[in-house]
Fold this sequence. Notes:
homodimer, alpha+beta, five-stranded antiparallel beta sheet, 5 helices, 28% helix, globular
Amino acid sequence: MEKVYQGKTKDVYKLDNGNFRLLFKDDVTGENGVFDPGANTVGLSIEGIGRENLKTSVYFFEILKKAGIKTHYVSADVEASAMEALPAKVFGKGLEIICRFKATGSFIRRYGNYIDEGAPLNAYVEVTCKDDGRGDPLITKEGLEALGIMTGEQFNSVVAETKEICAIIKDTLAEKGLDLYDIKLEFGYYNGEVILIDEIASGNMRVYKDGVIVDPIDLTKMILA
Amino acid sequence: MEKVYQGKTKDVYKLDNGNFRLLFKDDVTGENGVFDPGANTVGLSIEGIGRENLKTSVYFFEILKKAGIKTHYVSADVEASAMEALPAKVFGKGLEIICRFKATGSFIRRYGNYIDEGAPLNAYVEVTCKDDGRGDPLITKEGLEALGIMTGEQFNSVVAETKEICAIIKDTLAEKGLDLYDIKLEFGYYNGEVILIDEIASGNMRVYKDGVIVDPIDLTKMILA
């Protein structure tokens, strides 16, 4: 199989049927040997975490499918840590779509002059460019258009889908007594439509329980319990 | 007179008629004694530069007035380095509105993965929060609304006015053989309207002549010649 993309935590291959095969690796992002989903470098390996992230993703992709939301997810081979996905094109060199329900992280680092840590946000959506060297810079709708990364119409679709998807994920977590603060998604373009791609795993979200942040490894266990 | 605001390069007083009196100081931003309009700290004093910036501002405000554009400018007392202005309210804790005709500076630092230094931009407008401690973070239309800094309608007005104003400034400079790359404006809210406030001086813009950037002090001389 031809490797079409090598990521920090996943590799992507091209299947004979034209679809992609995503191989979930045991590498996780972090710094100095400490797992940190917000970090931009591979910090350590945790045996079996690739498979756990795949299982978590399948769990959410199946819920979204039942809700009638189109994603790139086709099927999964959990034993092989592999997911088959539609071969969607990423926008530009890749974007991260963040949906925030409570102000924390980079939102506070940017706008702490205006809002307190933990203050509510109404499914607030923002977009950053995947660019480790530049610290994943924020980009506006106008910026995406000016740089030819995405049309205004595509941006509106991404925002609307993000709000819908994240509300479902938030509700799913709430049923388990978990509080979603923010989550990072990726979208791609396939067959004339904007669809959710990548994974939906613990490392993509900040979740709290009884006011205390839940470690991604524990979170995976709680989601899959 | 009551001092209502102390800025890095200007102080603002309240006049008896309710208007503001802006006192242009000889302090300029920079670092290590070198004048740098993009810096966030007062780096040095240059005798008479406050008056020159006022003269430059009056020059542009008069041109805008003739073009029918409303600004906060009422009159100037150049000898006293003072300008009388309408008492507009700033948005939030102050915003900077940047209009770009060529990609340079922070735009390249953010999006250099997508665009080359000096590439053309079509009066591209973006907004940053005035917040030295946080490096003047970029903010989107949605962010301004979510934080209660500005309504979507006010944002649209600011963008439309910025494009109109900057096209006039660009043309004015072009008549002098000068090429405007980008410029930083401020807007306020007065009498139910969004109007241009602050100053329009050499330190607020990057201007090139024959492909070489023009030093702000030389630029002031060229504008006022």
